[in-house]
Every structure is written in C-alpha cells, then in structure tokens.
Write a structure and sequence with these properties.
Blueprint lengths: L7 E5 L2 E5 L2 H13 L5 E6 L1 H8 L2 H8 L3 E4 L2 H11 L8 H15 L2 E6 L2 H14 L4 E6 L8 H11 L3 E5 L4 H9 L7 E4 L3 H6 L7 H5 L3 H8 L4 H4 L1 H14 L1
Parallel strand pairs: 3-4, 3-8, 5-6, 5-7, 7-8
Antiparallel strand pairs: 1-2
The protein binds uridine-5'-diphosphate (UDP).
C-alpha cells in the first residue's frame, strides 16, 4: 500500500502545526483508519497552546508525534500566514469532531466518547446519533474516573471495537492522557476535543457565526466566560512574539 500523504507540517514559534483544510483533515483521517492505523492522534493548536508548549518540552514532544495538528485558532492561522506566507485556514477542532462523526456514520466506524461530565457525555451521544443517523456509539465514559480505573477503561475502549476515540478532558490533560495510553489503544485515531461535548449539548454556547467569520470566537468566549481571561493573557504575548519573529 502507498504511504499516506501527510499534510505540510510547519511551525509557529517552534511549535509544530499542519497546513491543512477541513476536507484535507477528513480525507487524511479516513485514509488512516482505512489503512489500519493504530493509536494515531489529532490535536488542535491555538495561541494558548503554543505559549504553553514553549514552556513544556515533554508536552511539545507529545504534540509533535501527532499524526495531525490542526490550526484551531485564528491567531495560529495569522501566524502561519505571516511567518511562512502560507495560505492557511482555520480547522476548528469543535467542527472537525462532528465532521468525523458524519464520516464514521457513512463508513460504519464505531466511535467512543471519553470525557466530560456523565450527563454531558450521555446528552452528546444522543444528539450525535440523532444528527448522524446510523452513527454507532461503540461506547462512552465520563472524564471523572480515577487513575486506577484507566487500565479498565482502555480495555473497554478496545473491546468496543471503536475506530475513532474522542478524548474530552480539556488541555493539556487530554493530550497527556493520549500520550500515556496510546501504546495500549487499538483504535485507529483519537482526537483531543476539549469542551466540544459541552457545546454539542448546549451547556456551553459556541460563538454566533458572525464572530466565527470575523475570527473573533476567542473574544466571544472571553466575554461570555470571564474566568477564561487568565488563560487568554497569553494572547498578546503570542502576537508580540510572532511579530518579533517576523522582524528577525
Ligand atoms: N473534564 C473532564 N475531566 C476532568 C476535567 C475536565 O472530563 O478531570 C472535561 C470538562 O467536563 C469539559 C472539558 O473537559 O467537558 C474541558 O473543556 P474546556 O473547554 O475547558 O477545554 P478546552 O477546549 O478549553 O481545552
């Protein structure tokens, strides 16, 4: 079999990220699953994560081994364009996830949902099945299990026969979990999806389409949940570093 062509991997301030479109990401995921991949993973890159990864070599290493690193935040897209002149576009993880569910329903891949509160996980599973008729939820587990329950969970995931595993523990917990358990996982691909299940059930609202179109989703999230402000102080520092890197 021909090796699967990978999207162009570039970097932002030394943090890897792929220049890929939504269609390209879906095509790549499909080829991985159909090619019999095992324990491959897709992670999202946004400015907040770039700043966190600059301070954490081990986490950066975990990210760099991902099969696909999607440009999830507009800041990262801006940096890819500015630093490398690439025609980068945003591929939000929260949109890739339902698109992967649509693919799974079409191809008959089972999916496993791991993470978020029990009622959120249950509600999201119900909504996804309604939205993508034929989608097989091979299993699910909430994200508040104890460490000693993890080997059992991995057995449950493998026994479910799921081809795609969504891990919704927030960052960097979900990336660390994937890195720790992937050698034992039989699923084809995992995606770290943060709070996507919360947005599917509606406990957390996504920004209205106008904000998304203008690249202001981050602003909407900041205003609607001011507790996130602490996390977003890294944004101006990120922008400043990109501008400096460009000058250099
Ligand atoms: N979560 C979890 N277990 C934990 C901590 C968090 O399952 O021990 C879930 C939480 O319920 C929420 C998600 O992880 O569904 C975190 O969402 P957030 O929006 O903070 O993640 P981000 O996308 O910002 O990384």
């Amino acid at each position: 079999m021909n090796p699967i062509e990978k999207p162009l991997r570039t970097d932002v301030l030394g943090v890897p990220v792929d220049c890929v479109t939504m269609a390209g990401a879906l095509d790549f995921a499909e080829k991985l699953v159909d090619g019999g991949a095992k324990g491959q993973y897709i992670l999202a890159i946004n400015p907040e994560k770039v700043m966190a990864l600059l301070k954490d070599d081990l986490l950066r290493e975990a990210f760099s081994k991902a099969a696909l690193l999607i440009p999830d935040g507009i800041g990262v897209v801006w940096a890819m364009r500015r630093l490398h002149g690439l025609e980068a576009v945003r591929v939000p993880g929260s949109e890739l996830m339902p698109n992967l569910c649509e693919l799974a329903a079409r191809k008959g891949y089972g999916i496993f949902l791991f993470g978020s509160k029990e009622e959120v996980s249950r509600g999201a599973a119900e909504k996804l099945v309604q939205q993508y008729p034929g989608l097989k939820i091979a299993g699910r587990a909430n994200g508040y299990l104890k460490e000693e329950e993890m080997p059992g969970l991995v057995e449950q995931i493998n026994a479910s026969g799921a081809k795609i595993l969504f891990v919704a523990l927030g960052s960097p917990r979900q990336e660390k979990w994937i890195q720790r358990w992937r050698p034992q996982l039989n699923v084809g691909i995992c995606q770290g999806i943060g709070g996507t299940l919360d947005t599917i059930v509606g406990t957390v609202k996504r920004a209205p389409p106008l904000f998304c179109r203008l690249g202001l989703e981050w602003f909407y999230r900041l205003v609607s949940d001011p507790r996130r402000a602490k996390r977003q102080v890294s944004l101006p520092v990120f922008a400043w570093k990109v501008l400096l890197a460009k000058v250099k």
